Amino acid sequence: MSMDNIQMVDLKGQYSHIKEEIDCAIKDVIDSTSFINGDKVSVFANNLASYLDVKYVIPCGNGTDALQIALMALQLKPDDEVIVPSFTFVASCEVIGLLGLKPVMVDVDLNSYNVTAKNIEMAISGKTKAIIPVHLFGQASPMEAIMEVAKKYDLYVIEDNAQALGAYYKFDNGKKQALGTIGHIGCTSFFPSKNLGCYGDGGAIFTNDDTLYERMKMIANHGSKEKYHHKIIGLNSRLDTIQAAILNVKLKYLDEYCKKRYEAAQRYSYAFKDIEEIITPKEFTYSSHVYHQYTIRVLNNRRDELKEYLHKNNIPSMIYYPIPLHKQEAFLHLAQHKGEMTNSETLSLEVLSLPMHTELDLGTIAYIISKVLQFFNK
Fold first, then answer.
1. 11-106+114-251 and 254-375, same CATH topology
2. What is the pLDDT of residues 187-244, one digit of tens each?
3. How far is CA 359 from the centre of its chain?
4. In angstroms, rounded to a whole number, what is the distance separating the alpha carbons of residues 322 and 320?
5. Strands 185-189 and 156-160
6. Are strands 128-131 and 56-60 parallel, antiparallel or unpaired?
7. CATH code assigned to 254-375
8. In the 3-class helix/strand/coil scheme, how is the chain assigned residue by residue?
């Protein structure tokens, strides 16, 4: 890779390795002309269900739709409260407001970037009905403790697993379980840059609950189980057949992709371990890490300066996320937040994500590392 063409995500490079399989899969769909609800969609749903060891997978239009369909299936009432972290992508909270529900934002842990069971429990009121933990950047929220809180207060749990497909949770008893399959419902996105990404929009919902499955399947299909018979109000949200065919190919490589990301992350972290002004991502015994993003914290107000330095050296970087949700204009009139939001506010000023994808070669990683070290005079 040319050092003047480093990318945050190299989809073209990834495609070049599986081009023949992808092209063949797309051609099969075009030849069949079954562009909507073709056989490849159910094949992919079954393959992903087997991979995750979950009973049901419902493919849908995108990750945001997945979250909305999941919430709709719970049949909540206006002003019912849903707890969500403030430090996350807007979709996790957006769908709560869209349905006339009340987002209650809570702070995250400074080391994991994820919501904590303690902060969730502190925010529970008589109107709380659900929790949306987000597995941010590729690593699990503390699901065992969160599920204990949910059981204690009789709450639903919807896992936002858009950034951690392929990761697993390790329970205290040693049992391992795929993220997205632990709560009542799990949701994911197949946005192209995800660890498992398609070549357009796409998403999916997971559950082991028969009743929730039937309801979500209807919601995603105009509230219909039988054509032209609409039992409930629903959406039109489906994964098109070409995207399903692409995902069927890429699913076979998901573990390999996650392994490559993990190895690149370890090289970054080892190189930066002695830089006092960088805090590298922490890993926790209860979760594997699939590094959807490699996100460092840059201390002493030097984050933006480092970002600009990298840019001048042809190295892209991104800030996920510059404004926590509790400070976003869209939610000021709608949401509430419980407790101090210090960590979310701190992270928004310190986080910086470096290039992370399956095609990062050793030379590129070494170049990126060298420029970061130069910036800190190391």
1. no
2. 999 999 999 999 999 999 999 999 999 999 999 999 999 999 999 999 999 999 999 9
3. 20
4. 6
5. parallel
6. unpaired
7. 3.90.1150.10
8. CCCCCCCCCCHHHHHHHCHHHHHHHHHHHHHHCCCCCCHHHHHHHHHHHHHHCCCEEEEECCHHHHHHHHHHHCCCCCCCEEEEECCCCCHHHHHHHHCCCEEEEECECCCCCCECHHHHHHHCCCCEEEECCECHHHECCCHHHHHHHHHHHCCEEEEECCCCCCCEEECCCCCEEECCCCCCEEEEECCCCCCCCCCCCCEEEEECCHHHHHHHHHHHECCEEECCEECCCCCECCCCHHHHHHHHHHHCCHHHHHHHHHHHHHHHHHHHCCCCCEECCCCCCCECECCCCEEEEECCCCHHHHHHHHHHCCCCCECCCCCCHHHCHHHCCCCEECCCCHHHHHHHHHEEEECCCCCCCHHHHHHHHHHHHHHCCC
Whether residue 321 has a cis bond before it, omega within 30° of 0: yes
Q: Where are the domains of the chain?
A: 11-106+114-251, 254-375
Cα dihedral sign, 310-275-1-256? negative
Q: Which fold has domain 11-106+114-251?
A: Aspartate Aminotransferase; domain 2 (3.40.640)
- Residue the block writes with tokens 């159910």: 42
Asked if residues 325 and 86 have their Cβ atoms less than 8 Å apart, the reply is yes
Percent of the chain scoring above 90 in pLDDT: 96
Neighbours of 151 (CB within 10 A): 10
Written as one letter, the residue type at 91 is: A
Nearest alpha carbon to residue 205 among 49, 95, 315:
49
Q: Give 291-342 pLDDT, tens digit per residue.
A: 999 999 999 999 999 999 999 999 999 999 999 999 999 999 987 888 899 9
